[in-house]
Amino acid sequence: MAKSPFQNVAYDAPLSFTEPTWLWRRYKCFWEGTISKTLSEKDVPFTNLSGKWVLISGANSGIGEQAALHFAQCGANLLLACRVTPAEKHPGAVADHCKALARAAGYGKSTIEWWEIDMAKLKSIDAFAKRWLDTGRPLDILCNNAGMGTNPGGLKKHIKSEDGFELVHQVNFLSHVLLTLRLLPSLARAEAPRVVCTTSCMTYIGVYDLNNFNGEGCHGVQMYNNNKLYFQCWLTEMHTRFMESEKYKHITINGVHPGYVNSGIWSFKAGEGFIGWISVIISVVLQFFASLFAINTKQGSYCITHAATSAEAGPDPQTQGVGQSGGKGGGRYFNRIWEARNMPHAQDPDARLRVWRKVDDELKLTEKGLLSWTE
Questions:
Q1: Which phi and psi angles does 189 have, rounded to 5°?
Q2: For residue range 340-367, what is the model confidence (pLDDT) as tens digits?
Q3: Is 105 helix (H, G, I), strand (E, B) or coil?
Q4: Which listed site, 186, 256, 328, 330, has its alpha carbon 20 to 30 Å from 311?
C-alpha cells in the first residue's frame, strides 16, 4: 500500500474540513436516528445461510441475541461470543433457543455454540481468536456488537481495564478492532465475508479529540459518543485498505445504527451519594421514555441482519469480484436498514488515518504483525 501523505500529521493538527454545525449533528442524531418505522421479515427476509459461519459478540442480550435468533432460522452455524454475568441471560440458554429455532426451520444439522469472551481484557480477545483460528473454519460473517453505555465509575472516576484503557473505549472499540484483525485469516477463507460493526447515531455528536482518545477529559455518555465516531472512522479506513489488498478485497465491512432501542443500555449510575441517586432517577426516566417510544430489540436487530445478508449492503461485484448485482460494498453507515450520510471525519482520509494510527499506537498492532498486510 502506498504511503499516505497524511502519515505524519500531528494528532491535534487542524482538520482540513469544517466541522458540521451543532444543529446538523443533533438533527442527524436525534431526529433521523430515532426512526421508529416497524420492520418485518418482508424488509429483512430470512436468507439461506446453511453451511455459513456467523460469529456475534454480545449475543446473549439485546439486539445481539435477537440477531442470533434470526441467523439460527436462516440455518447458519453460529458462534455466540459472550461474557457470563448475573446481569445478563446465560449464553447457554440463548444457544438452546437458537438450536430449537433452527430445528423448527428445518436446519437440525446446524452447529450452534457459545464461547466465553471478555471484551474488557485483551488477553481474552487473543485467546478467543486463537481458539477460533485453530478450528480451521472459514468465517463468513463477523458481527462486532458487544458494548456498554457508560463507564461504571460514573462522572468522577474513570474505571480502566487491566490493560490500562478506559472501559467504554476498550469494550466498544479497541477490542473489536483487535478481534477483527486477529480473525482476518479466517474471514479471508470465506467466499464473500462480511464484517458488521454496531456503531450508533451517537457518532454524529461524538467529539473528534485524539488527545483525549483514552477518556481523559471526557465524562458520562461522551465517551460512548466519541468511540462510536472513532469506530466508524476506523472501519471506513479498514475498507479502503481492504480494497487495496488482493487477499482481503472480497471482505465487506460496514457500520450500523440499530435505532432508538428499548434495551439495557439506558441503565447507568453516575457515581455515589447525591449524584448517584440523581443519575438513577434520570436512568429510570430514560427507561420509561424508552418503553413508550423506543423500538424493541428485535426491531433493533434488523440493522445487523440486513447488513449481514442483504445484497445492497454486500460486496460490489465490480470492484470486489464477489457478490450479487446491487451490492455497493463497504465503508458505509446504515441507519437501521437505510444507508445514511457518514460523518465527514469518516470520509476524510487524514481524519480516518489519524484514528487508524492512534489505535495502532495503543494496541501496538504493527509490533504484533497485525498490519503487515497493509504495508
A1: -80, -10
A2: 999 999 999 999 999 999 999 999 999 9
A3: coil
A4: 186
